[in-house]
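Sample pair:
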Amino acid sequence: MGLAAAIRTAVAAVNEQTASLQVPVMHEAWVGADALGDDLPLAAPVSRPALVQEGVLHHKKPDGQVITTKARISFLVPVEPNGAEGRQEPIDPRDRITLPSGLTGHIVEVPGVLVDPATGRPYVSTVWLA
């Protein structure tokens, strides 16, 4: 078994073992903009199980900027790409994520995400809400 397969197996095991800790998170995908550049309405909400840690934390980004986040969210099951032109997959900063508490916020990409070479997608999709 190669390293990529071992990581996939480990993520699947963590997903199974943490199922009782995961909560349903609503994900509304950005689907594009109209001819004038205005955002179209977001896609219908999709409920996705995720590990969620709410609470204010300060993070220093690789460029030295410090941001304050309100929550950290990890999706252990792959999030399928939306496919809209100009979109960052699998989760775009223009998407909306709403936690069971009602908390939502600006999506911040987490730097240094490990990508599965077989799929080109992250093993675990993690985002911060700021």
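The chain has a mean pLDDT of 93.
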